[in-house]
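Revision sheet: structure tokens.
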Amino acid sequence: MKVVELKEELDKRGITYNTSDLKSDLILKLEEDDLNAGV
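Predicted:
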């Protein structure tokens, strides 16, 4: 996932983010959310 796509996805979900964390913590968080949602 590109950073731009990631930012758009975070905005859609209303998740606040710190740019320095984008490549690590937030990708894990999104994957976790997807798993929990059964996507």
